[in-house]
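Any chance you could type out a protein's amino acid sequence plus the matching backbone structure tokens because I've never seen that pairing?

——
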Amino acid sequence: MGWLVNFLKKLGVAEEDESELEYIHINDLSDWVKIKIDDLVHNNQLDDWLINYVNKLKDKRWLLECKIDDWEKKIITLGLDYDTKDISTIFNHSRKFLDFLTFKESPNFKSVMKLNYKLSDHLEKLQKLVEASSFAYNYTFVLNKEEKDLAINPLLKELIGIEQLKESFDSKIINCGYSKMDNLLDKANLIEETQERIKRIKDDLSSKRERFKNAEESKGEKEKELSRVLKNNDNTEDLSKRKNRETELVALLVDLDGQVSILLSKLKPAFRQQVGLNQSNQLIQKYLEEPVHTFYEDKFLAINNLLREMREQITKGRIKLDPMQNDTALRIIDECTSGKLKLLQEQSIRAKEELEMLKEPSFRNKDNLMKVEEAKYRLEHFTKQGTKLVEEVADAEDELDDLRAIQKREVELFQNLMLVSFGREIEIKIS
């Protein structure tokens, strides 16, 4: 029966319970706010108020322009030295103010509120210019007979009138809640834009994971192919052992690369912030861009000092991570600086040295060597592709986590603002 109640509410037959929790899907949030704004405008007759306000400002503008024209004519008629006084500057600025105070053919709330935001600044600057000049008190020569008893500068009087008109409009907009709803519309648009970005990243992640799966399958096939080529190259027991060992070493190096990549990719969020804190240290940037390659170039493991510094920066709050990233980073830093990286590098060096010895041409003829090298090249290609995809997936997951945190914060803020500002309890459904 919920649909019937909603239908009757729209017809005005059933009363709407403001305390009732309302559920809104995140994709409908902006449209929902726009409907609420339309209701607010209609119920408070804001369209009429806006037209009335704009017309009054136009009248004020026209009147001030006429007065400035009249004052300038009087100065010339009286034969006053116009240029030696600062009145010339004031009138020039006044005309610039009048140029600012113009409207489109069909002004709307957005354009008028944008103008109002700048109007106070323009009024204040012009008022200060008048008050700092001799014209502030020496103005009787521009007055008409009906204005001889005027106790305030006539230009200031007009500016104050415009300011009062603006304040009256602002007060109406604030009191009826329009400005709050307009702010909520901006937040709703931000929430929907964030949701759109999350969707794009999730689709991209799905594609990358599928590509990684295919790369791993291809890598497995190439490992078997390499093993088969090495096995078929020579039937002698000695060469067979050598080739089996070569296969083992290639697999070991692939595994070592993978271990390094996984360890360092989980530290990327911290590395990104560490770059900002140590801009002169190029090694951090290299580890961020090419972690595996940089690790094997880092013969003296300078990364251990970077990681100890990173741990201190995390502990002191200079590097800020979410709780899960924080725990992961500290655990990996402790593992790496306790000898893990040194062990991985030593294993890689020994494996590469042994592999080079096994590659000596004396162990295989030219034809066999070409077949083996081709199989190795294919295996290396898919291994690198898989490593690259692991890093890209880690980056995308980090970005997705950041966006979800932003979305959660903005959704909670939006719901709280609706409750505090309008006493309306809503729940934004994301899934």
Q: What stands out?
A: The chain has 14 helices and two strands. The first helix runs from residue 2 to 11.
